[in-house]
Amino acid sequence: MGSPGFSxxxxxxxxxxxxxxxxxxxxxxxxxxxxQRETPCPVHQAALDLGLPVRTPARVRKDTxxxxxxxxxxxxxxxxxxxxxxxxxxxxxxxxxGCLNIHASLLPRWRGAAPIQAAVLAGDAETGITIMRMDEGxxxxxxxxxxxxxxxxxxxxxxxxxxxSDIGARxxxxxxxxxxxxxxxxxxxxxxxxxxxxxxGRLDWAEPAVALDRxxxxxxxxxxxxxxxxxxxxxxxxxEPAAGSGAPGTVLDDELLVACGEGALRLARVQRAGKAxxxxxxxxRGTPVPPGTALG
Length: 296
Fold this sequence. Notes:
GO terms for molecular function: methionyl-tRNA formyltransferase activity. The protein is α+β, with helices and mostly antiparallel strands. It is about 25% helix and about 25% strand. Strands 11, 12, 13, 14 and 15 form a five-stranded antiparallel beta sheet that branches. A hairpin with a 4-residue loop joins strand 2 and strand 3.
């Protein structure tokens, strides 16, 4: 049970290991691309490529027919990774070994929808994968296995995403094979990573440069870090803290060094609305941004 690209390595690993996959559940196809054609999500497409049956219910929480159809599969276990729908108790209880979730954090830290971005944004020294037996709470179920991933000082969401996806695929095979005893999560250290919205990408220049640098790295690729410039939105794809001071949001030199609440941020790669992404040097050749320009 999964939907985005993060879930695909787990599906492929289960298939390659010879597990009998009774059914794949994924989010329904949605319009995508210029033609807005109905497009299956990555897990749906991967299941089709593997010749596996797929169900794509739009909702399951109060659908008793969906609960009965799920129970009729007579499952040993359900593997859930970034599925996107809340599973009700009848579905959680149906598999003999329960619903096993691949969660992209070291629980109980960063329960919720956006744990990878939250870890990068907070400047955590490490994150990881937890295999958890799901209960009715929000990522509160007992833990089966955990594996840490160190986060370097320049970690970005895409690279952490890919590394954790691979760890999750490997760890779920261990969990199914070893059937480890569940360990309750401690409440101490529990934090929550809410679902992201577009405004989470806005750069508040009153913040320290190190915090804005983390936001740029955390919000890539979505919702993407951005600022207002010359009456339009300027996306900031990469940046780095640097020495400098001035009124927050003020451009300090001819190379897109921007003053922050503490220190300054050098914009390295940017993108105007409707235009291609480019290095700051290339952007400035066509569009000078002189010192004193205010970003907001």
